[in-house]
Amino acid sequence: MRSRHFNKAGLHRFLSSLEDSTEDVVNLYITPASFPDYADALSLGAKYGTHALEIKEAVNTKAVISNAEKYGTGAAVFWNGLGNNHIVLPPFPIAENKVSTGKLDVSMLREVLKQKYVIAVVLVTWGWYALGVFDAANLVASKTGTGHIHKKHKKGGRSQKRFARRTEEQKKDFLRRVSNRIEERFESFAPDHIFFGGNRLILKPLIQESGYLRAKAGKISPRVLDVRYADREALAGSLAEITRSLVFSF
């Protein structure tokens, strides 16, 4: 098994290369809520042959399961049992469970890639934040800012405790500020998806602080963007990571 990341254009080229094959395949689309159960429910028999067992084993490999949980978008499976077998984790959710055999069918996956989404991005590290809204490929709203937070005090005793309390208060103030900016920037949009990046330990307390994020909890992607800095440069580059697909080949 090997895995590869593809941007949108790269995945389209990859799918086109698969369509050149004349072999019959099992086409399997699985929604996020049904992964991997829908694949596990495939029955052995004349229709799917031994492919059902192979697919079950493939979708339940550790790497596929862990990344499917990370993406939270379901999967598309194309399987012919002849060394041309692939599981695709798309950047956005598969909308319908579907299985078919015969000619390769990538139509549902191309439909996911074709959709134009409104995407809200929240990048946060302690003391820095960058917020943005993408309408398709265009950054249509953004806001960056900072907040002073004391570094950990190395001395012991009362001084250390005093600094610790001050730092906690500064963190609370910072989260309130970020929460207010999120509502200000995002309230006039209706995002299809919300992506968080930066310090993943901040996400839970930020959601607790932000009424906007709590109200939109169902739209928050489980995938945390891997960014080191919460600044304008990271915000501008976040869409490239958001729209990447992950392909496993067996």
Features:
38% helix; 250 residues; 2 domains; alpha+beta; Nucleotidyltransferase, domain 5; 9 helices; 27% strand; five-stranded mixed β-sheet; Translation, Eukaryotic Peptide Chain Release Factor Subunit 1, Chain A
* Distance from first to last alpha carbon: 5 Å
The pLDDT mean sits at 92
| Tally of helical runs | 9
Shape descriptor reads elongated
CATH architecture of the largest domain: 2-Layer Sandwich
Q: State the CATH superfamily name of the largest domain.
A: eRF1 domain 2
Q: What Rg, in angstroms, do the CA atoms define?
A: 22 Å
Helix coverage percent = 25-40%
Topology:
Blueprint: E1 2-6, H1 8-19, E2 25-30, H2 37-40, H3 51-59, H4 62-71, E3 75-79, E4 86-89, E5 98-102, H5 107-114, E6 118-125, E7 128-135, E8 138-146, H6 157-186, E9 193-198, H7 203-209, H8 211-215, E10 220-225, H9 232-242, E11 245-249
Parallel strand pairs: 6-9, 9-10
Antiparallel strand pairs: 1-11, 2-3, 2-5, 3-4, 4-11, 6-7, 7-8
Helix pairs in contact: 6-7
How would you describe this structure to a colleague?
The chain is of the alpha+beta class and 250 residues long. The chain has two domains: 2-115, Translation, Eukaryotic Peptide Chain Release Factor Subunit 1, Chain A (2-Layer Sandwich), CATH 3.30.960; 118-240, eRF1 domain 2 (Nucleotidyltransferase, domain 5, 2-Layer Sandwich), CATH 3.30.420. 38% of the residues lie in helices and 27% in strands. It is elongated, with a radius of gyration of 22 Å. 32% of the residues are buried.
Summarize the structure.
38% of the residues lie in helices and 27% in strands. By secondary structure, it is an alpha+beta fold.
